Amino acid sequence: MVKGLVGTLLSVATAVAVVAVPSAANAAAPSPALAVVAANTPATLSSTAKPHLIKYKIYWGRCKDTCRVKVRVTNISRTTLYAVSLNARLKVNGKKVGSCYDYVGTIRAKHSRWGGCTVRTRTLSNMWNRWLDGEIRFDRDVSTVVHYEYYR
Predict the structure, then answer these.
(1) Residue of 27, 18, 83, 75 whose CA lies nearest to 52
(2) What is the spatial order of strands in the sheet that 81-92 belongs to?
(3) Which one of 38, 56, 119, 141 counts the least CB within 10 Å of its CB?
(4) In what order do the strands lie in the sheet with 67-75?
């Protein structure tokens, strides 16, 4: 609750500064467009802040010349989530070697579902072969993004 109040106060202070500075610099003809933007700023900020309704944990399957990424997505809210999808970007030694996509589906309140996808690329295969030859390390890392829709 405190973070929400601090964020609101900062956005109001920013809006006041945006309106005050241009009107002081150009006192003869204040711009009506700046007043409209500043007036809509606090409402826009509060309506675009989305609650975090999910948590997820990443698991690894086989990861050699192809990598299997498994993700357990848990709905921690009291609402049903629709059209849940998963994007995963795989990196080996900090270099992007591929990405994959999976449609998870609908997740009911307080339930979880599994999603997973497989990355098969030439770059990943070449990195695996270089690791087998002893040229490089094979430090894998994955970043995931989970999209969903919900209705209030």
Answers:
(1) 75
(2) 95-107, 81-92, 140-149
(3) 141
(4) 54-63, 67-75, 112-119
Separation of first and last alpha carbons in the chain: 20
Backbone angles phi, psi at 79, to 5 degrees: -110, 155
Prediction pTM value: 0.62
Residue with tokens 């997820």: 56
Q: Which two tokens stand for residue 113?
A: 């579902």
Sequence-distant (6+) residues with CB within 8 A of 105 are: 84, 113
Tokens 């929400």 sit on residue: 4
Express each pLDDT in 9-54 by its tens digit. 555 555 444 444 444 445 555 444 444 444 444 444 444 556 688 9
